[in-house]
Amino acid sequence: MKRSSPFKTLSLLSISLSCLAGSALAADYSPYPKAGVYDASDSGFERLLTVKPDGKFTLEVAEKGKPGNLRSGAGEGKLSDAPGGWNFSEGRCNMTLKRAAGGMQLHVEACASSWGDVPFDGKYKYQGEEVAAAPAKPIPAAAPMPVAKTTVPATPAAPAPTVAVTQAAPPPTANGLPSRKEIDEKWQAISVNRIGNKDILFVAKPIENKSSTPNPIEQFSKAVFVIDTSTQYREMSATEKAKSPLQLVEITLPETGPKEGLDFLTDCIYGKSDKVIVINKTGGSKLKRMSAWMLDNNLKAVEIKQVSKVNCKSPFY
Description:
Blueprint: H1 6-28, E1 36-39, E2 45-51, E3 56-63, E4 72-78, E5 80-82, E6 85-90, E7 93-100, E8 103-109, H2 112-115, E9 122-128, E10 148-149, H3 161-167, H4 180-186, E11 188-195, E12 198-206, E13 220-228, H5 238-241, E14 247-251, E15 261-270, E16 273-282, E17 288-295, E18 301-303, E19 311-312
Parallel strand pairs: 10-14
Antiparallel strand pairs: 1-2, 1-9, 2-3, 3-4, 5-6, 6-7, 7-8, 8-9, 11-12, 12-13, 13-14, 15-16, 15-19, 16-17, 17-18
């Protein structure tokens, strides 16, 4: 009887194991970086790179500092496999990612015109397998707080149609409140104050002018007091911007016609409060004072019925 060589048996076993290992590696192989969030922030800029499992990415950079002329930029696209890492190219804009310990080294060329003139380059360290989950994380104080709409007691009529128009859009966050980023970019900031340990930002949402002719009259669909731990949204990371503020307190805006608009006055005084917002109607020969609002110490909206008694520092009054 012919016996097989032990060396031949070991050789066949080795080949079988190699094939199995190769199959496992092929199954785990991905042409894209590990999905998740990568951070390269420093003392001057917030830098955040988010990569999805299919290779799509978003890159956001925002300058730190006091609100004002702060720079920011953002880009997005889909990565391609490349030697030593990955790259992205669109027109003249080119981005390369090289593998590095704990993350990736990112370099951008000729992307300022499309993404913004900010320093994107840096070593982006892996932060976690979180891509779209962060905006949905509940804020302890925000989840049980719906938008508190305050109506004028003396007006039994239904809410103004303009409010219904803005509510027709789907809510951008899980709790129905707009995100901090949306408030910063889509709403017009009127005033910033502080009550207790909360920042109070008063904002109004402009009505989009769909006509090709510029409209000199400012029209708004909604106005709210934003209550948050901080309203310096431009200094926050992209993850924090995606969250909603703690609470919104909506006020009732005066009704306006097609050729009428609204103007807001701040630094107005009524009694002991110096944080009163006065709303004027524009479109005629002169401004017409319509209403005045403030937040009390319990962060509830209060309409001041004696509008003429409110003293504003504006030269118009």
